Each structure stands twice: as C-alpha cells, then as structure tokens.
Amino acid sequence: MLKFIPFLFILSLITTSSFAYVGPGVGGGVIAATIGIIVAIFAALFGLIWFPIKRLLKKRKAEKEKQQNKID
After folding, report:
1. SS3 1
2. Which one of 14, 18, 40, 72 is most buried, counting C-beta atoms within 10 A?
3. Quick one: pLDDT at residue 19?
4. How far is CA 9 from CA 4, 5, 35, 43, 57, in A?
5. Could you tell me the end-to-end alpha-carbon distance of the chain, in angstroms, rounded to an integer?
6. pLDDT above 90 for 3
7. Domain residues of the chain, as ranges?
C-alpha cells in the first residue's frame, strides 16, 4: 500500500493533451453545481444553528410570560 501512494503522486504529475471540446453548457453546469453545493452547506449550517436558538428564545419567552402571569 505504501508503494502505491508515491506511484499515484508521480502519475498525477504526468500531463498529456486531450483533444476534446468542452462547450459552454459544461461550464454553466459546473458553476450551477458549485453554487448548489455552497447553498446546501449554508442551509445545513443555518438549520443546525438557527432552529435550536429559535427553540431557546421561544422557551425564554414562555417562561417570561409565565412569570408575568404569576406577578399579575
């Protein structure tokens, strides 16, 4: 296994020409996929952070209203 890693490194340094056409649709697709991945990451982080904070704020508000009802 350890002999395989340097082989892969050396193989990745060798470049060859590929005579292929990449149209503008592929570039647009790559950009759209990249933006989609970034948005998904931010949405996941937002969900992991916002909803527990929202629950905590709602709990505090309910406790505060409970205290107000006891005082009145």
Report:
1. coil
2. 40
3. 76
4. 9, 6, 30, 36, 52
5. 75
6. no
7. 24-72
Structure confidence by residue, pLDDT tens digits, 8-62: 888 888 888 777 777 888 888 999 999 999 999 999 999 999 989 999 999 999 8
Give dist(CA 67, CA 14) in Å, integer.
Answer: 72
3 DSSP assignment: T
Which H, E and C letters describe 11-64, residue by residue?
Answer: HHHCCCCCCCCCCHHHHHHHHHHHHHHHHHHHHHHHHHHHHHHHHHHHHHHHHH
Is the pLDDT assigned to residue 72 strictly greater than 70?
no
